[in-house]
Design a protein that fits this description.
Elements (H helix, E strand, L loop, with lengths): L2 H18 L2 H5 L2 E12 L4 E7 L1 H14 E14 L2 E12 L5 E13 L2 E11 L1
Parallel strand pairs: 1-6
Antiparallel strand pairs: 1-2, 3-4, 4-5, 5-6
Length: about 130
């Protein structure tokens, strides 16, 4: 399998798991000692999460799957420069807390080694 195909498959599986709210599916893609970051802005405040190791960021992923439902996914671009890849995508995010759906732009920066995500940074902003 080519490096590009590996990156496309991993990002596709990650996004599919996010859309399905599949915590186990997301976690299986990450290295146990990986790095995880999310930075962005909600309607009223900035959001930043940083964790090292799956044990530290699994609770964040669990919270995201419980609180947010994603729909209307569109992958706008995918760039692979092995072992890194970046994905620009759009999705509507529904908050089960507020009852509001927000169209959102996201960019994922991913580093892959040994068929696992070693580093993941996500940046998002409402459209």
């Amino acid at each position: 399998m080519t490096e590009r195909v590996i990156a496309e498959r991993m990002i596709g599986e990650l996004h599919a798991a996010r859309l399905a709210g599949d915590l186990a599916g997301m976690c299986r893609l990450f290295a146990d000692h990986g790095r995880f970051e999310i930075a962005g802005a909600s309607a009223d405040k900035p959001i930043a999460i940083r964790a090292a190791g799956l044990a530290d960021f699994r609770p964040w992923l669990a919270m995201m799957t419980k609180v947010f439902r994603l729909s209307d996914y569109t992958l706008l671009s995918l760039v692979v420069e092995w072992p890194r890849a970046s994905a620009h995508w759009r999705v509507n995010i529904y908050s089960k807390v507020t009852g509001v759906t927000v169209p959102t732009e996201l960019v994922d920066l991913v580093e892959i080694r040994d068929n696992k995500i070693q580093a993941y940074s996500e940046f998002f902003v409402p459209r």
